[in-house]
Amino acid sequence: MTMTQHFFAPCPRGLEAVLADELTALGAQNVKAVDGGAGFAGDFALCYRANLWSRVASRILWKVGEAPYKNEENIYRLALGLPWPEWFDVSRTLRVDTTAIKCPLKSLDFITLKVKDAVCDKFRAESGERPSIDTREPDIRVSVFLTADRATLYLDTSGEPLYKRGYRQGAVEAPLRENLAAGILKLTGWQPGEPLLDPMCGGGTFLIEAAQIALNIAPGGDRWFAFEKFKNFNPDVWGAIYREAEAAEKPRVPLPIYGSDLESRSVRATRTNLEAAGLEGVVTVSRGDVREIAAPAPEGVLVMNPPYGERLSDQDELAAFYPELGTAFKRNFAGWRAYVITADLRLAKLIRLAPSRRTPLFNGALECRLFEFKLVAGSNRKEKEA
Q1: Gap between the Cα atoms of 217 and 354, Å rounded
Q2: Do 229 and 140 contact (CB within 8 A), yes or no?
Q3: Of 102, 266, 282, 289, which has the fewest beta carbons less than 10 angstroms from its beta carbon?
Q4: Looking at the DSSP assignment, which residues form a beta bridge with residue 367?
Q5: CA–CA distance from 52 to each of 32, 198, 251, 263 (Å)?
Q6: How far is CA 320 from CA 91, 106, 334, in A?
Q7: What pTM was estimated for this model as a whole?
Q8: Separation of alpha carbons 22 and 302, rounded Å
Q9: What's the CA gap between 66 and 51, in Å, rounded?
Q10: Which residues on neighbouring strands pair with residue 33, listed in sequence order?
């Protein structure tokens, strides 16, 4: 448990620096942000804490092998040489996934097959048995990452992606992933105690993530992790980390976190998800039109994920909505900082406000921008062209 291991945590693109800061705060060593995530070092106790506490990572991958390669056989030999039976039992079900950047080999599916064969061949050579394959709900996931000339193998210590917190019960259209929402909250500079409003709350993801941050609730507290099925799993260490997290939670009291939505079904979905997260009475949710509602406090942070084509196909309707949104910002939210995540890059022009910052982000494969607007009465409005 105390030996230093090497890990990699993928995250939504654009949040790498936020993730690196989070991992450093958790005690990770040699943290290095790269495109799509961050590498770090530490012991397995750190691995447990990162899975339990990371709000931004998608997974925590344990690096178990690395070597240069020229062909598929090199990758097979790398996988065959690893002591898989020391890490998990043959009774555990298995899945292998391969991703690559500038890989010269023709088929990633064939590489996945070769690594799966190598793992099974290793077990068969040592015990006469091989693990079963389960591509839907495996106990163990092996991740293969290829660059132009180097292969790296990981064991996934998380299992289900970390953004699956377990509270999403009420379904809405095109929700943000939980870790992207948490990362955006970090980018806004919002701090617990500061008023927060999502006026188009959908399923309430921003609200729930903010409440969990404010109450110091571990995002992974209501789920299991793949590391619990590893042979080196230490239940005493994990139990101590989990109990420490439970003891660190703050009392569930009403917070200055507010949500609203024009659609009644979104308000219902938000309330359902708040209840699933154990946050009833913590967040104030009501039905309302973003163009008409009043600010719940003289100043604070407004964050929202408005429709942008993926959620509303009528482009003319959107083109009319954005200027009205800008007008509402100016009229009702002077003194606030507003943050809008969108894949519709027309927003910056049509909202008729000058953004003070634009941060590129990805919602899955969808390229987006997080626009920041500092709303001061009588300023920021773009001058109308002569």
Answers
A1: 36
A2: yes
A3: 102
A4: 362
A5: 20, 26, 19, 34
A6: 59, 47, 22
A7: 0.93
A8: 23
A9: 23
A10: 38
- Cα gap 306→304, rounded to integer Å: 6
Q: Residue 213 in contact with residue 303, Cβ under 8 Å?
A: no
Q: What are the structural domains of the chain?
A: 5-156 (3.30.2130.30), 178-220+250-374 (3.40.50.150)
Written in H, E and C, the secondary structure of 177-222 is: CHHHHHHHHHHHCCCCCCCEEECCCCCCHHHHHHHHHHCCCCCCCC
Alpha helices in the chain (DSSP H): 16-25, 44-53, 72-80, 84-87, 108-127, 178-188, 205-214, 235-248, 264-276, 315-332, 347-350
Per-residue model confidence as pLDDT tens digits over 291-331: 999 999 999 999 999 876 544 456 777 788 899 999 999 99
Residue 104 CB contacts under 8 Å (≥ 6 apart), including other chains = 148
State pLDDT tens for residues 279-295. 999 999 999 999 999 99
Number of other residues whose CB lies within 10 A of the CB of residue 106: 9
**Nearest alpha-carbon partner for 134 in 95, 88, 90, 96:** 95
Question: Is the pLDDT confidence value at 377 over 70?
Answer: no
The helix/strand count (H/E) of the chain reads as: 11, 14
Size of the chain in residues? 386
| Distance of alpha carbon 46 from alpha carbon 52, whole angstroms | 10
- CA triple 57-63-66, angle to 5 deg: 135
Decide: helix, strand or coil at residue 40.
strand
- Measured distance CA(206)–CA(184) in Å, rounded: 9
How far CA 239 is from CA of 49, 177, 242, in Å, comes to 11, 28, 5
